[in-house]
Design goal:
Elements: H1 2-23, E1 26-40, E2 63-72, E3 77-82, H2 97-106, E4 116-122, E5 134-140, H3 151-202
Antiparallel strand pairs: 1-2, 1-4, 2-3, 4-5
Length: 203
């Protein structure tokens, strides 16, 4: 039973960490090589695409999606989608997809004359499932070695840890004051009843 218990605990925390890793903002230092738009018909990977842009029709199966092609400071290639999040989840309240695409196109550069930018995004890149991270903002930086401190993530994770600790402490107090005494009393009653039954049968 102990192995099963720890398996479910580990699975729970893996899911929590995966959810936070997908949802919380990340920053990549990259050079934008191209921007384009193409028709997308989400299928089995539809959970990793945003809804139609705010104000657009939601009845059509496919839709046009902006993409931003980049080469990271590590020399790897990364492609981002550029979609509104609107009022949905994650709560980035992004409504400026077209403006962001124009900003990204304006800072395109070549390897000979690189213009480095910090791309704020959320989500994962998976080539097999055709999943792309969603770009939130693009800001120019001085070079590929610039360091971005994730203040938003630090604050959110600190608040989550504080909240989890507060719930855990209150649960321990509630269990010590209410549940454990009730279980002890129940055990005593069962023991008393067992002793009474044994005495009855001996007679």
């Amino acid at each position: 039973m102990a192995y099963i218990k720890w398996f479910f605990i580990a699975a729970f925390w893996v899911l929590v960490l995966a959810f936070l890793h997908y949802t919380l903002p990340q920053h990549d230092i990259a050079r934008i090589t191209d921007t384009y738009e193409r028709r997308v018909d989400p299928g089995e990977n539809r959970w990793f695409w945003s809804n139609a842009a705010t104000g657009d029709s939601t009845t059509a199966q496919g839709r046009d999606v902006f993409f931003i092609q980049t080469r990271l400071a590590s020399d790897d290639v990364m492609v981002y989608r550029n979609e509104d999040t609107g009022w949905g989840w994650p709560p980035y309240f992004k409504f400026d997809t077209s403006n962001l695409q124009a900003e990204a196109a304006d800072v395109r550069s070549t390897a000979a004359a690189p213009q480095w930018v910090a791309i704020k995004h959320y989500g994962w890149r998976n080539e097999f499932l055709s999943i792309f991270p969603n770009a939130i903002s693009v800001k120019t930086v001085t070079g590929p070695d610039v360091r971005i401190i994730p203040w938003t993530n630090i604050i959110i994770l600190t608040l989550l840890v504080a909240f989890s600790w507060a719930v855990y402490v209150r649960w321990r107090r509630f269990r010590a004051s209410r549940i454990d005494p009730a279980l002890d009393e129940m055990g005593d009653n069962i023991s008393d009843a067992g002793g009474w039954l044994k005495g009855l049968f001996r007679r």
